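Methods, example record. To illustrate the input and output format used throughout this study, we show the complete record for Calcineurin-like phosphoesterase domain-containing protein. The sequence lines were provided to the predictor; the line carrying structure tokens was produced by it.
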Amino acid sequence: MGACDRLARAVPLPLRAGHWPDKPSRCRLAFTRRFLPANPRKRAPSCSPSCWLRDDLTGRKTIVRSARGHSSPAQAGGRSILMRKLVDFFLKLLPEREEVTIARAAARVPDGVRVYVIGDIHGRADLLAQAFAKIDANEAAHPFKRNVTVLLGDYVDRGLRSREVIDQLIERQMTRRVVTLRGNHDDSMLRALNDMDIALRWLAAGGRETLHAYGITVPANIDRDIVHTVMALAVKQIPAEHKSFLERLRLYVTIGDYAFVHAGIRPGIALENQSAVDLMSIRQPFLDCVLPHDFMIVHGHTPVTSPVFRSNRINVDTGAYITGNLTCLVLEEDRQFILEPRNETCQTVPGKIRCGTES
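The corresponding predicted structure is encoded as:
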């Protein structure tokens, strides 16, 4: 079982270094509330200097991480009573199923660069037009040397205006710096044009609405013959420019300390070695992993009620096609904002959570 699996179901919160009775300037502590199956004297994951401690009263096993050097179980033994008291104190303050971890240093984008990040659109051309209008107004009100817009994928399916979404993106790329990433729905649409089995699954996952946007009606009850006829018509009806757009979509892009992907990454694997399937479709163990990645990951794919900020990732998929809320994240230097309606911005403290329900 991997380190991220052992630390599953985590909701990290930042813990400021305080004045502890035992050498306050030397340690920053992270307390993890979890029944862990590991041996309490087993070394913690090698990615950070840590050791396991056990609370004899609660039976909880706890990771203690030091900001300086490695603390072995033997070294920690002399402070075990103090540590147990501190662990018990903090655990009593936390609601069930929440954890506290060390907050990583704030991620940054290069100086002079502002990045706008838009989550899953799913055929909501109306919301995309509003988002572009807000971005234009924000750029005019707060000029920056270089503005880049990153769209995280899933432009088609479910909503009824997928064709207009792609038209807007193609037009926007002609005049602005726009990076378009590939989502699993975009990939399925492209592959469905040439694969009957994929076409069947795609139509059931929102492809009907996409074909409707291209003037193609799909019967309620379909079989392989009907699907073959429908997809043959789709090949003719979908403009070559739109097919070319889908083929050019990128799997990820990095800017400064951030990596932008559609769904997430598989923990422990370098970004350049990630599989396309994981980048477009992963949920677990990515969502539950609390260990730091090489980059701060900005992603969509998993709908949430409001943007989620974790110590190692940011989720901006707010279910636009059904909620009417298309989130636009703004990154400037080490600051993170949500571009709100009425062209206002709302600052979010780096590392602080804005709660959402991920499923």
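Annotations derived from this record:
The first strand starts at residue 50 and ends at 54.
The chain is about 30% helix and 15% strand.
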